[in-house]
Design goal:
With 150 residues, this protein is an alpha/beta fold. 33% of the residues lie in helices and 21% in strands. The protein has five helices and six strands. Strands 3-2-4-1-5-6 form a six-stranded mixed β-sheet, sandwiched between helices. Helix 1 runs parallel beside helix 3.
Length: 150
Amino acid sequence: MQLFILRHGKAEPMLGNDAARSLTERGRKQVAQVCKKRSKELSAVHAIWASPFVRTQQTADIVSAHLGLPVVTEPLLIGDSNPQQLLDLLQEQDNFPILLVSHQPLVGSLLNGLCGSGNEYPMGTSSLACVSAEVWANGCAELDWLQHAE
């Protein structure tokens, strides 16, 4: 099974409500570029899940436009969520590959935890990772690739 993990694009500076921050124009372009570079791989995605925050919804909408899939809002994808709760939810799914659109520190701890890699794989804004596993648990996945924004 494959899982795609996408960190939202570059967002506006924090001026108040973190959940309401929007993507910058540069952030939108970087997400679109990453989607274009990995369009062949992303074409296999069956579902897009995104955090309820504005910038992740906007990021997911860009991917959704490329793939023609709806975006499902998943509260467990907020950046400070417990990765184990998300892994438990993934264990219940059967519609892989799924694309998760989220924030730091969740995307980094999820990717590195699944791969048992400490902090080896950085997840900057607009970074997209693909991992494969038979079971969604820490140390049980292999990194297929990691695409960073330009």
